[in-house]
Every structure is written in structure tokens, then in C-alpha cells.
Design a protein that fits this description.
17% helix, polysaccharide binding, 202 residues, Immunoglobulin-like, CBM2_carb-bd_dom_sf, transmembrane, transmembrane helix
Length: 202
């Protein structure tokens, strides 16, 4: 009983692992296994990679810092199409692209009547050529034209259509007058057409 029994360690006890290479960056481990004659080539490749990475980073930074270009301001006058503002039937300028007439039209009230008024239309030729014939149409807002003088009447009423008489040419610098009688409120004629074009008001 005085003897001490020596206990042996079991065979399956875990043995300490042999010390391996110290951990480090993977590229260092790869470089250590590169043969010495290839070392300059590997160093050159690494240097090129660093330069490319730095350039790419700079380009990304510039793209993010670049402010978007300001939108080109639109022309306040709208698209340029080579035409003037067209005169509406109420009296705006005719389009140059459609061919502006040398004829002008002027309306005025000659006198008032108990039921309406008597108006005068003056057609003038400001061009250098004689106008052999013409046709005029207009409307008096809220009124009805009952009679027309000084031209061949095609239609009266809410809308008036008249045209030149036979042989009633209009030479350069000349003017002619057409009279009409309207029943209703005194108002300037609108929707004026001369030779199928918007009237150019004098």
C-alpha cells in the first residue's frame, strides 16, 4: 500500500499542434513562395496594380463631386421658327410665313342709329401692284348686318361676305370704302378675312 502507482497519459490525449508560419497578409505569403528570378516582375505587377487602384479611386471621387450641369434656359419667346406673330381675326399681325398682304383694312363707326350703327370699312393697297379683285368677310359681335354698300354683296346677317364689283381693281396707293348697317350693340368687327387671309388692320 505504500507504493505509488504511476499513471500514464492516455494515448488519445490531444497533442499540441506544431507551430506553423505566423499569420499575415496573403500577398506576403504568396511573395515568399515566388522564385527569386521572378521577384522583379512580381514587384512591377504590384506597383501597376497600386497605380490603377489609385487612379480608379480618384475618378470615382471626381464623378461624385461633379455637379450636374444646369438646365439650358428656355427661350422666353418660344421656339424660333422664322415667323412673326399672327394677327388674330380681332386684329393681330398676319404671319410672315403665310405671306403678309399689302392690303390693309380699317373699321370705324360713321354714325349711330336707334337700332344699331352705321359703319365704314376702308381697304387700302400699300403694295406696288394693282389688286384686280378682293373678297372681304367679317362679323359684328352681338349684331346683325342688314345692308352693305360699295361692293357686291354675297351674304349679310351675323357674318358678312362681300367682294369687289366687276372692274373694281385697286391700284397701288388707292383706297376704297364699303359701308354697312348693323342692328345691335356698337362693336368693332371681328373674324375679319381679306382674300382668305386674316385682315391686317390699318
Amino acid at each position: 500500500m505504500g507504493r505509488h502507482t504511476r499513471l500514464e497519459a492516455p494515448e488519445d490525449e490531444a497533442q499540441p499542434m506544431p507551430a506553423g508560419p505566423s499569420p499575415g497578409p496573403r500577398w506576403k505569403q504568396l511573395v515568399e513562395h515566388v522564385p527569386f528570378p521572378l521577384m522583379p516582375l512580381v514587384a512591377l505587377m504590384l506597383a501597376v496594380g497600386v497605380i490603377v487602384l489609385a487612379y480608379s479611386t480618384q475618378q470615382i471621387s471626381l464623378n461624385f463631386n461633379k455637379s450636374p450641369q444646369a438646365a439650358t434656359p428656355q427661350d422666353a419667346n418660344g421656339p424660333s421658327d422664322g415667323t412673326m406673330s399672327q394677327r388674330s381675326p380681332g386684329g393681330s399681325h398676319a404671319s410672315r410665313g403665310a405671306g403678309r398682304s399689302d392690303l390693309t383694312v380699317a373699321f370705324r363707326v360713321a354714325s349711330r342709329t336707334s337700332a344699331g350703327f352705321r359703319g365704314i370699312v376702308t381697304i387700302s393697297n400699300h403694295g406696288s401692284r394693282t389688286v384686280p379683285k378682293w373678297a372681304l368677310a367679317f362679323r359684328v359681335p352681338g349684331g346683325t348686318v342688314r345692308a352693305v354698300g360699295g361692293a357686291t354683296v354675297v351674304k349679310t346677317g351675323r357674318v358678312v361676305h362681300v367682294r369687289s364689283r366687276a372692274g373694281q381693281a385697286l391700284p397701288p396707293g388707292a383706297s376704297l370704302r364699303v359701308t354697312y348697317t348693323s342692328v345691335g350693340p356698337v362693336a368693332a368687327p371681328v373674324d375679319c378675312l381679306l382674300n382668305r387671309e386674316p385682315c391686317v388692320r390699318a
